[in-house]
Amino acid sequence: MRVPRVAYFPDSFHEVNGVAHTSRNFLGYAQRHGLPFLCVRAGTREISFEQVGELRTLELRRSRGSVRMEKDLEFDTLFWRHSGAIRRELERFRPDLIHLTGPSELGMFGAYFAWEMGVPLAASWHTNLHEYAARRMTWLTGRMAESRGAAIEGGVEAGGLWVASQFYKLARILFAPNDELCRMLERTTGRPCFLMQRGVDTDWFSPMHRTREDGDRCVVLGYVGRLSVEKNVALLARVERELAAMGLSGVRFLIVGQGSEEASLRRDLKAAEFVGVLRGAALARAYANMDVLVFPSHTDTFGNVVLEALASGVPAVVTPDGGPKFIVRDGETGFVTEDDHFAKTIAELVRDWVRLKEMRLKAREYALGCSWDAVFDRVYAGYEIAL
Q1: How far from the centroid of its chain's Cα atoms is residue 11's Cα?
Q2: Are residues 179 and 231 in the same domain?
Q3: Are residues 362 and 230 in the same domain?
Q4: Above 60 in pLDDT, residue 73?
């Protein structure tokens, strides 16, 4: 079978999040392998088209009518003004398949043009929007009786999943970052679902970037990601308090990221360095200088930052919900545990420097087997089924 011509409509590309990170690497994969690939994305220029060999990009600016969803995420209510530019480029490219990453304005255009042009639609699930919606109801449910609040959050989550499933039913084939989500999507949409995991650049994220002295016994607990309620970041302050109550001294947090919960974390964490959003070499050094990554999210579908930490030789402590539990090998490259046991688990690990060193080596070894080429080879195998 010839290589399909793929038009890719990502929700996010230039931002700092899992969808954008995956999308940039998908573009890099297509370029490395000389694949016919068109990426239609939002950016900073009104309308910009570029072509290098078989790789094409159409970048379209969001308007002032955009609704801000998070500090670096927007939904443009006026994006329809670009419909002519998108149609013209799709007609020139002649895709065999259109692939979207979610129900954003880009995703809606992707679904519409797949229908209009009569080509198969593929959709990948990257974000548990239904869970995010429920977590963001805490401003209301936190003022209610626990049972009443839980019922409302449960209703919002169930309703959000139903709405998202109706959108994903438009696709012929689905992708998700872990088996649990694939089974959920197959159950709610009736469509086949295949893995679209995430890889890591093990040259870029590496223990070689560690700059701390070997004798430095300060315990650096790291967090990387959006500082928002759905990431359960309030647990970080609780962990700090419980570690102090256990008598564990010399502990400090390194917080990489920004978001709506930053002010409360700055208030509640007593020994923490907030460095904002980092990229490139600065991010690689930040990971390598951590001792343990503390990632308390219950809603992440994969957890890019967990894999980046492991590649940097940093074991991770994660929850038993969502995607990170599929990355961490419990007891070998980190721990999978409930919120109530985070502090105890971290204390036991950092008090045993021999075991911590062994985990650092195993974390790195695991990450070396996770390449982006393997991830996208599987995606193209899924395309063959869709076609």
Answers
A1: 12
A2: no
A3: yes
A4: yes
- The number of beta carbons lying within 10 Å of the beta carbon of residue 245 is 9
- The token pair at 93 is 């490219």
Same domain, yes or no: 187 and 317: no
Are 381 and 352 in the same domain?
A: no
Closest CA to 37 of 90, 80, 102, 1: 90
DSSP structure string for 301-345: SS-HHHHHHHHTT--EEE-SSSSHHHHS-BTTTEEE--GGGHHHH
CA distance 275 to 256: 6
What is the mean pLDDT of the segment spanning 137-151?
68
Does 1 reside within a domain? no
pLDDT at 130: 53
Around Cβ 218, how many Cβ atoms within 10 Å? Answer: 12
The phi, psi pair for 122, rounded to 5°, reads -115, 145
Q: Single out the residue of 385, 386, 384 nearest to residue 2, CA to CA.
A: 384
**Element housing 69 (H / E):** strand 66-70
Closest of 116, 302, 267 to residue 196, by C-alpha: 302
- CA-CA-CA-CA torsion sign (315, 319, 320, 323): negative
Q: Containing domain of residue 160, as a range?
A: 6-199+371-386
Contact 122, 129 (CB under 8 A): no
Consecutive H or E run containing 180: helix 179-189
CB 41 within 8 A of CB 60: yes
- Token duo for residue 113: 């043009």
Based on the domain organization, do 336 and 377 belong to the same domain? no
* Residue 379, both tokens: 């995606």
Q: Which runs of E-coded beta strand occur in 199-309?
A: 219-224, 251-256, 272-276, 292-295
| CATH code of the domain covering residue 232 | 3.40.50.2000
User: Average model confidence (pLDDT) for the chain?
Assistant: 90
Residue at 33 is within a domain: yes
* pLDDT single digits (tens) 183-227: 999 999 999 999 898 899 998 999 999 999 888 889 999 999 999
